[in-house]
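Private note to self, pasted from the team thread so I don't lose it. C-alpha cells:
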C-alpha cells in the first residue's frame, strides 16, 4: 500500500524498477525476529543483504538503541525508527534555502507515538523537501531511482514537501504488518559508497558507508547516482540547475543467513564523476571531453554496454572510445563525449557503462547549456 504523506503530489514520476528481492531470515518459520517482530534483513536484486544498523557513528543518527549493551527488543530496547538502509543528500537553493532528499528502507511504529509492540511497520521511503522556490513553477528532480516533477506551492519554506512510503502503511489496528510489501517500493538496489570493496577509502568493515561522511555512491539502476533539481532560479537568479553527488549512506551487512554480497573481484573507477560542457551554440558540436575507466580489481572486467541516457540523451554523443568487451586488472580505457545542444537551456544526460562489477551500471553525469 502506498502512503503519500505529502503536501505536494508529483505531476510526473518514472515507474519503479525491479529492485528489492527478499526479506528474511530464510528458512525460519517466518521472516521476523521474535524479539522485535521486524525482519532481520532486506536484500536487493544484486544480492546485498542489509540488517539492523545501530552503530552510533556509522549508522543513521536516529538508529541507536536506548541501551546499546543489550540486544534489540520491542518494546524495551528499540528506537522509534530504524533504517535498514538510508541515503540522504542536500544542497543549497536560492537565497539560503535547502534542497533535501531522503531515500530509505525503514522500520517504525505506526500510528505511534512511541515504541508499541503490535505497531511494527516497514516501508521504502522517498522524501523531497525544497525551500525558496518560485511559487507555481515546475521543478524536476532526478535521483538514483527515477525522475519526479513537482509544481512548487509557495516561494518560501517547503515549496516542495513530498514523502512517498510504500509498505504496510497505513496498517489496521491489531493486524500484523506484511513486511514483504516494502519490496514493492522504488528503493533498490541499495546505493553504496563507490569505494565499497576497494582497498582505498573503503567504508568501515561490515558497512556499505559511513553516515557521518558524505561520499559519492554507486548502485543506481538508471545510472543516475546524483541528486539534481532543474527549474527556474533554483540555485539563485539565472541558475536553473543544481546537483550534488555526495550522499550520507547508512547500512550494515547482515550476519543472518549471509548470501552473495557485492563487490565482485572486478572493481570500476570512473574519472571524472561528471563532465560540464559549459555554453555551446545550438547545433554546434563541442570539443570532446574524456572519461577514463579503470579496473582497480583483481579480475578481468567484462563490459556489456556503453550508452548515453537520462533527460536529454540526443544532445550528447560518444565521439570515440578505447573500451572494448573486456578490461584487464589495473588497466584503463577511455570514452570521449561531445555536446551538441538542440535547445536554448540547460541540457543533461548520463554516460552509463554496464559491466560485471558491483554497482553496475556505472555512470558519469553530463551537463551543458544551449545558446
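Design output:
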Amino acid at each position: 500500500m502506498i502512503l503519500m504523506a505529502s503536501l505536494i503530489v508529483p505531476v510526473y514520476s518514472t515507474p519503479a524498477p525491479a529492485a528489492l528481492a527478499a526479506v528474511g531470515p530464510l528458512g525460519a518459520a517466518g521472516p521476523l525476529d521474535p524479539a522485535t517482530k521486524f525482519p532481520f534483513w532486506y536484500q536487493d536484486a544484486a544480492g546485498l543483504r542489509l540488517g539492523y544498523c545501530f552503530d552510533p557513528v556509522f549508522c543513521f543518527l536516529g538508529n541507536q538503541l536506548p541501551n546499546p549493551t543489550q540486544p534489540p527488543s520491542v518494546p524495551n530496547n528499540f528506537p522509534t525508527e530504524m533504517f535498514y538502509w538510508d541515503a540522504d543528500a542536500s544542497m543549497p537553493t536560492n537565497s539560503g534555502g535547502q534542497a533535501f532528499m531522503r531515500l530509505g528502507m525503514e522500520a517504525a511504529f505506526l500510528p505511534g507515538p512511541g515504541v508499541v509492540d503490535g505497531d511494527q511497520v516497514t516501508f521504502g521511503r522517498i522524501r523531497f523537501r525544497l525551500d525558496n522556490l518560485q511559487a507555481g513553477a515546475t521543478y524536476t528532480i532526478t535521483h538514483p531511482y527515477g525522475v519526479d516533477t513537482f509544481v512548487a506551492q509557495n516561494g518560501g519554506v517547503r515549496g516542495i514537501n513530498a514523502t512517498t512510503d510504500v509498505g504496510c502503511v497505513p496498517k489496521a489496528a491489531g493486524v500484523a504488518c506484511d513486511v514483504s510489501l516494502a519490496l514493492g517500493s522504488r528503493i533498490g538496489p541499495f546505493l553504496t559508497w563507490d569505494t565499497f570493496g576497494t582497498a582505498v577509502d573503503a567504508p568501515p568493515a561490515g558497512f556499505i558507508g559511513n553516515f557521518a561522511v558524505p561520499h559519492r555512491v554507486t548502485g543506481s539502476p538508471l545510472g543516475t547516482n546524483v541528486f539534481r533539481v532543474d527549474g527556474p532560479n533554483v540555485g539563485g537568479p539565472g541558475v536553473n540547475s543544481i546537483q550534488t553527488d555526495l550522499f550520507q549512506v547508512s547500512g550494515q551487512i547482515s550476519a543472518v543467513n549471509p548470501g552473495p554480497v557485492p563487490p565482485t573481484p572486478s572493481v570500476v573507477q570512473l574519472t571524472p564523476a561528471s563532465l560540464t560542457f559549459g555554453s555551446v551554440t545550438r547545433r554546434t558540436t563541442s570539443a570532446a571531453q574524456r572519461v577514463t575507466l579503470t579496473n582497480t580489481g583483481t579480475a578481468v572486467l567484462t563490459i556489456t554496454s556503453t550508452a548515453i541516457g537520462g533527460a536529454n540523451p540526443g544532445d550528447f554523443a560518444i565521439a570515440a572510445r578505447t573500451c572494448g568487451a573486456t578490461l584487464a586488472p589495473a588497466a584503463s580505457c577511455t570514452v570521449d563525449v561531445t555536446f551538441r545542444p538542440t535547445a536554448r537551456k540547460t541540457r543533461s544526460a548520463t554516460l552509463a557503462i554496464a559491466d560485471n562489477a558491483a554497482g553496475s551500471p556505472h555512470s558519469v553525469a553530463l551537463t551543458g547549456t544551449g545558446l
